[in-house]
Fold these 2 entries.
Entry 1:
Amino acid sequence: MLNCDLLIVGFFTDWDYLNCLIEHCLTRVSPSKIFVVDPASSADLLEKAPALAEAGARATTVFAHVRETGDSFLTKLRLQFSKSYVRQVLSPGLKAYREQFDADADPSLMNLDEIDNPSLWQLRRNIEGALPNQPAQRHEPIEAPVLGFIIIRLLAAGATWDGPLLKLEDRFIRVIGASGKFVHDLEKSYSGSVPPGASPDVTIAVGAAQNFLPPDIARSSETENIVRPASGQFCTDRDFEEVLEIA
């Protein structure tokens, strides 16, 4: 743990265990930063955890006590992490938009304040290309300027965020990372993954290949039913503008 950052959350009801752990693990190391999340006062914190206070004195950069409950702190941490993650994808999209159209996109298109925590998590899953029932796993997004460009392109064309989806006029659009995958396989994977009526109208599979093999399921053009809801239309980054009729 030399020169690492240490975050301690939610141990304020079990200080005996925490003190023992710190004494055994942090006696001879100097973390770079230590953040302790505990609603107690700093004086109470130092009294309850003297070993932690000693470790904090050895922190090479920061020793901070955040007076907040663990639930509240972690909710804010997840929110800021997800926003940072998505912005890292959108930022190259702004540059690609400028190169494509010789004009700057509105920087406000990077604003994610209207998207809540669960939707941001779902958006991260879509960017990663996680299949239904798979969690978001990456700490940093892969380099995906095309995916970022498509989202910026849709927003610049008038789309707005609706949870993890984009809404353009009367159609809901999902953008997913799908490099190296076939569209018909994605159609099979996503079929029936959401309740009837909740499927996006269009899914843009960025990096996927069309091989025109029909999935061994009911086609998305069929009427929805309880057994097999429609999964919407799938397209790729090469034909999304035509499908969505974006000039």
Entry 2:
Amino acid sequence: MGNAKCYGDLYTHRKFSIFPPKAQTAIFEIGNALRDSSVTDEHILAYQRSLRDVPASDISRTADEIRLIARLYLVDYGHNANFWDAPILPADWRKFKLSSPGEFLKAQPDLFWLLLFHSSGYVRQDAIKQLKRAPATEFEMAAILYRMNDWVDQVRTEAAIYASSYFPKTSAQVIGKSAFFLLPYSHQFRRWSNHERKIFEHTLSRTDVLNMLHTELLSQRPGQISWLLRWLLKKPGFDHNLQELAQSAAIPIIRAIALDTLLLGQARWYDPNIKGNALARFRERQIEVSTDFEIQLEIAAFDKSPKVRRMAADALLRKHQYASKNMDRIANHLRSDKDTPVRDHIEAYFRKRKDLERAE
């Protein structure tokens, strides 16, 4: 999903890993300690640190690598292991006897976050049942959403139950950070039913989460931010943030989308469930905030980014039949713009204005 940096692989058959060497070692060592029932707090802290900077968008590849590096199999496929007798998990989780995780794991509850990546669906399901806290990082949030798309029905069900209980308790910061990376990819979770999608969307619709996302959109940050803003435009409760984004967002595409929305008076967002070409896959609604068209037009026309000024030129062209002296003044300002598409739109605006005058 993401564009992760690659490192040399230390512990599996692969050539590359998305984890740096120190993180690979932490994952490998906690896997060994798990099989020996010798996991310490240091193992867990090292493992958690290894995931701290992993983008939520890399959850698919990360899940696979954790399973391989920590050797979370039903049998241990290591070269030096006895194929049939290698221990799988401590206590009575061995060889499908999965009625209880055992006292060892109960004493180390954060290990269940590791076991979400076990190859056995039985183990993944039981691990989710044993989780007793909300996700503390964007990666843990991503792990639950990923398990809501698990190929095993029972795992998906258990993950959805967990999400319904603990996502309302998850901090807005964790949800918001994961949203920048996960939302653009959520439509790829083909096994999500409407129930799972509603859980995710309801979580993102919390007032504190919307406020956090608004603050983040004002700043310079990674992630597919334009996709996120388009998704937020579905929410009438987000409309009051558009003016500030239009004027103060650090990233030009955010200012451009916000101003385009204000100039149109319509919010538009992409819906992958609609069949047809790309343009046909947009839904729209009237925004619920009043705005002065010419004020927004001037803000857009004098923006430092050509992406935003194109929105002004496009709006002028759309509204040429309702042109005012102020609109003509703004158009004259854009007539000498450095950006060719802006100049082309403005020339078209003046041609249409002349055609209207002749027709009168």
